[in-house]
Amino acid sequence: MGDFNVTRWGTEHSSSSLVTKAMNDLNHALHTAELEDLKGTGLVYTWCNMRNGAGAISKKLDRALGNWLWFNSMGDTYAHFHPPGISDHSPVTIHMRASQQYCGRPFKFLNFWAQSEHFLNVVSQEWAKVYSGSPLVVIHQKLKCLKGLLKEFCTRPDSKVVELRACLHQLQQDIHEGLGTSSSIEQERQLRLEVLNAARDEEAFFKQKSRIQWLKEGDSNTAFFHRVVKVRQSWNHLVRIKDDNDTWILAEADIAQTGVNHFSNILGTSGRIAGRVCNLFGYDKQIATEYKNSLGCPITAQEVKAAFWS
């Protein structure tokens, strides 16, 4: 934590987006040391040259960094950059927070499910079932039932890898000590295959969660992907929010309720929102009449099919 005397990215400079050799050297050093920025709040630029007009320059030179162990054990902490006062640098404080329980997210299809030998059969059998209702209701029912079946494949392959490896190690220990049976060798071979397949699914799982696409296929990068997920969780965590009265809300439950209240007050109101919509009709560029009419036409079965098959 402190003044690194150089920015990391072009967006951290108020008047220039050029990437210099010093910036590349800093990023290389941080990557080598496996350090990453903590989630930050407050001021974006942490240094200024204290000039006015065209000569004024602001940069983000001060940083708070953490390594893999920090994000794994204290990922809910964040750095707050304060106004500089009489200095040209902004002071920074680290805010320690109790570990927050991440809320469940909506269903997400995991790509490694498609590699299962049972995947196509499960989908085909569910899609062949007959449901009553409109086509949209039928599709909804099929997808809803299919969601539960897909979750049975495995939603946390990392846990499965740990379990299978423990079984394999125990079986190998028994064979080594002469406690195995005549079928132990075949069981070991089968367990080896299951561990390899589970490890492949584990890597694909973390790769999808981390959204890293540029690593070569076949490399075992599970630990790297897991670290990226931890850093992303720390950055995505909402530590505070400002309500409609410009008051900062810090408590976890109050943050969620503030968001609900904000959008509840917007939905269904009249006057302010309607006035903004009416102002849009004053623009010269408008949608042609034939396109306006097409927006109100009923959706055809061909359009629905084309959307699903696109």
UniProtKB/TrEMBL annotation:
InterPro entries: Endo/exonu/phosph_ase_sf (IPR036691). It comes from the Eukaryota. PANTHER family: BNAC02G09200D PROTEIN, ENDONUCLEASE_EXONUCLEASE_PHOSPHATASE DOMAIN-CONTAINING PROTEIN. This is Exo_endo_phos domain-containing protein. It comes from Cephalotus follicularis.
